[in-house]
Design brief:
The chain is elongated, with a radius of gyration of 27 Å. β1 and β2 (about 35-40) form a beta hairpin. By secondary structure, the protein is of the alpha+beta class. α3 packs across α6 (about 280-290) and α3 packs across α12 (about 435-445). Helix content is about 30%, strand content about 25%. It binds one RNA strand of 76 nucleotides through β1, β2, α2, β11 and β15.
RNA sequence: UCCCCGGUAGCUCAGUCGGUAGAGCAGGUGGCUGUUAACCACCUUGUCGGCGGUUCGAAUCCGUCCCGGGGAGCCA
């Protein structure tokens, strides 16, 4: 295959007069007298390269005139300064090879804007559009930036298992994993499913969190993070939920809640500024066509320290707000969306970290505070999207952990390994979870989470690939 | 899962009081032009989301299911 130059490189370096070859897909074609203008994109960058196809090309009449949006071609020629407005440089082609046609009668993408809803129905083709291509590039950059951030700080990535046999992780409904023939399920006495005949000899599920396993490695390597697919079988039909999504979960030994918050705030700011710096062109597209206030909102996050407020203080602020909320405010009740929005959007107008929630509304692994009523938890609330991070200092004291697990009716026999972490060389540690698609949503301004993942899986929908 | 709104041409949508459908864009043909959301003229396109019901007659009214949007719950 001919050695090609990527369009991003060409537009950056503008090697005028040089003979080169580009390969990509046609965004549009405009015919003129004696020549055609081809708008070529190869995915390396948002902008396309204008290719001039003169009618002197041997295949001009037979092929070039038949080209349409979506066709794939290879173009060889000389890069020249463009005499017309709209682009600095263009490729004066001397040879164009057509790889694949895209019959315009059936090719779903047109030379115009499509609704995200429609594009979702052609998920295998939508990355060829400007906006979804930009999302894909930003997603890739954010993923890389996460690794950069943690690797620079001496964190080790741990690949925690996708399949888990901890049958009660307490983070929602789980997808069962089985090799049993569902038409002939083996039954034990009493009619219960006989899992001893299943692949693992016991019930198994797709993971809803890698946190507990990450804790084990944090208590060996110090600072670790897991970053991978996570599954929830919740019947959640919203623009913020997926059945399969990616979650980042750092876990730090010898770390308390404050250190946890500091890292989370630093991370979020790093990710945002990294995208602004390294995907400026795509970010510009989002700010022009997806969300006009995007850059202002991102800048607002970068400029300010996050507000840090205890749950109890948040309740007091809500009580004296004078607002009438649909859900009543009372100490001990979890904050509702409307409450979180009031705090982050109305009262403070910037990200808010709410800490020290009542222990009754938080999971068993969160560390009990000295007041005996609250736990060392923290939720980061962003204006516009609500909770983006949930984290805590973990309960490292065996006795207290056992008490909370028993109160929550956690089957201890499945968690002996977790308790071992407290029996042997326990240390204070903390961590948090960041929904990867949610940070992509925030950074891009995309309204629906299904449009920031390549092939979204949601209740009733797992189309394609 | 709950509440509200929607599903009509390839796409985005209009369709009044129930009388079996339109526009723009796309596509096709021709013309024009260093064009860039190209332009001008003409032409084509429909199981009106599925199923059932009311009616002489249903895109329109009723029921139900599916899908999508907004909000809520759950959460990341």
């Amino acid at each position: 295959m001919e050695n090609r130059l990527r369009i991003k490189t060409i537009l950056m370096e503008k090697p005028l007069g040089r003979e080169l070859c580009v390969q990509g897909w046609l965004k549009s074609k405009r015919d003129s007298k004696g020549l055609s203008f081809l708008d070529l994109t190869d995915g390396s960058t948002l902008a396309g390269l204008q290719v001039i196809a003169p009618e002197s090309l041997p295949n001009y009449a037979t092929e070039i005139t038949r080209l349409s949006t979506g066709c794939s071609v290879s173009a060889r020629g000389t890069l020249v300064a463009s005499p017309a407005k709209g682009q600095e440089v263009e490729l004066q082609s001397s040879e164009i090879t057509v790889y694949g046609w895209a019959p315009p009668e059936t090719y779903p993408l047109q030379k115009k804007r499509h609704s995200f809803e429609f594009l979702r129905s052609i998920a295998h083709l939508r990355a060829r559009t400007n906006s979804l291509g930009a999302v894909a590039r930003v997603r890739s950059r954010l993923s890389w930036a996460i690794h950069l951030f943690f690797q620079q700080r001496g964190f080790f990535q741990v690949h925690t298992p996708i399949i888990t046999t901890s049958d009660c992780e307490g983070a929602g409904e789980m997808f069962a994993v089985t090799a049993l023939d569902l038409e002939k399920i083996p039954r034990a006495g009493g009619g219960a499913v006989d899992y001893s005949q299943d692949f693992f000899g016991r019930p198994a599920s797709l993971t809803v969190s890698g946190q507990l396993e990450a804790e084990a490695y944090a208590l060996a390597l110090g600072n670790v993070y897991t970053f991978g697919p996570t599954f929830r079988a919740e019947n959640s039909n919203t623009s913020r939920h997926l059945a399969e999504f990616w979650m980042l979960e750092p876990e730090m030994a010898f770390c308390d809640l404050e250190g946890d918050m500091n890292l989370a705030e630093e991370l979020l700011k790093f990710l945002i500024s990294d995208c602004l710096e390294n995907r400026a062109e795509d970010m510009d597209l989002f700010s022009r066509f997806v969300d006009k206030d995007l850059l202002k909102r991102l800048d607002n996050v970068l400029r300010h320290d996050f507000v840090r407020i205890s749950y109890s203080e948040a309740i007091r602020q809500l009580e004296k707000s004078g607002r009438s909320f649909t859900f009543p405010i009372a100490w001990g009740v979890d904050l509702q969306s409307e409450h979180e929005r009031y705090l982050a959007e109305t009262l403070f107008g910037r990200p808010v970290i709410v800490t020290d929630y009542p222990e009754t509304i938080k999971p068993f692994y969160m560390r009990l505070n000295d007041d005996g009523k609250t736990v060392a938890a923290m939720d980061i609330l962003f204006p516009g999207i609500g909770e983006i991070i949930g984290g805590s200092q973990r309960e490292e004291r065996l006795e207290q952990l056992l008490a909370r697990m028993e109160a929550a009716h956690i089957p201890l026999e499945n968690y002996q390994w977790y308790l071992d972490l407290r029996r042997y060389g326990t240390v204070p540690h903390a961590g948090f979870g960041l929904g990867f698609e949610r940070i992509i949503q925030f950074v891009t301004g995309m309204g629906n989470i299904r449009d920031v993942i390549a092939f979204p899986r949601t209740p009733g929908s797992a189309i394609l690939a």
